Amino acid sequence: MTDKKQARVLAVANQKGGVGKTTTAINVATSIAMADRSVLLIDIDPQGNLTSGVGLKDQQAATGTVYEALTRDPLDSTGFVLPTAVDNLFLIPANRNLTGAEIEMVTFKERERRLQRITESLRSRFDYIFIDCPPSLGLLTLNALVAADAVLIPLHCEYFALEGLADLVGTLRRVRGGLNPSLEIEGVLLTMYDERTNLGQQVAKDVREFFKDKVYNTVIPRNIRLGEAPSHGIPGVLYDVKSRGAEAYGLLAQEMLSRAAA
Ligand SMILES: Nc1ncnc2c1ncn2[C@@H]1O[C@H](COP(=O)(O)OP(=O)(O)OP(=O)(O)O)[C@@H](O)[C@H]1O
Ligand SMILES: [Mg+2]
């Protein structure tokens, strides 16, 4: 009797910095793990915010971090996976070493498919794999877009939210045109929303006009508890379960699971 899974692989991407990529990856993944799915987080940002956000700063498997997984030739990446303090939630961590990977990988054959090798070897072990991208459209993010079934785009509700998105949309189009024809947009998520400002409302309206039903109904409010949680190494949804931020990410996870089941 085998319980063979087929993970949905999602890249959390936006080349703009500080829009809530890591916060979204951590909190959605944790909420889905709490709903009894097995979830893997992969940190591909040399800042390692995802790794420290789940309390595993400076930790790695005997075989190393995502840097070794990307630059060596493992046939099976199981050895790079660490358990977290949350049941059903696992991590392939990153640290500063990863900065060098982007340069080293340039000389590799099929350099855009290094991460895909990792995710493909792990797909049968998880229900979801979330890849937390760095704030750039470089080779690491490209690897995530090639490995992923779909991309989840967090958008900070501020004046320049839509600016620069043209670059991301252009990159998605290029990836679809060659390296990953079936790449989809999983959803666009409005983050750090402040309903008291007209600006927040206007940005939300513009984003919905542009991305239509790709935009999640759930909106993530600006919430101080979500900002505090990473310094404690605890996902926001567990740090203060009753906070508005935690509640919103719980609802987002439900929305994602029900969309997937539809
Ligand atoms: N909804 C929120 N309310 C308040 N603070 C938030 C919220 N979401 C994220 N933050 C905080 O804002 C900062 C940026 O968020 P986060 O690290 O998730 O963005 P990012 O897109 O991953 O950034 P980077 O591009 O540097 O990787 C962090 O300090 C985080 O704790
Ligand atoms: Mg981040």
Q: Overview of this structure, please?
A:
With 262 residues, the protein is of the alpha/beta class. It has a single domain, classed as P-loop containing nucleotide triphosphate hydrolases (Rossmann fold), CATH 3.40.50.300. Helix content is 41%, strand content 14%. It has 11 helices and 7 strands. The chain has helices at 21-34, 49-53, 66-71, 98-105, 114-122, 139-147, 165-176, 198-211, 224-232, 236-239, 244-261; strands spanning 8-12, 39-43, 82-83, 89-92, 128-132, 150-156, 184-191. Strands 3-4-2-5-1-6-7 form a 7-stranded mixed sheet, with helices on both faces. The longest helix is centred in the C-terminal third of the chain and has 18 residues, at 244-261. The radius of gyration is 17 Å and the shape is globular. The chain binds adenosine-5'-triphosphate and magnesium ion. Magnesium ion (MG) binds next to helix 1.
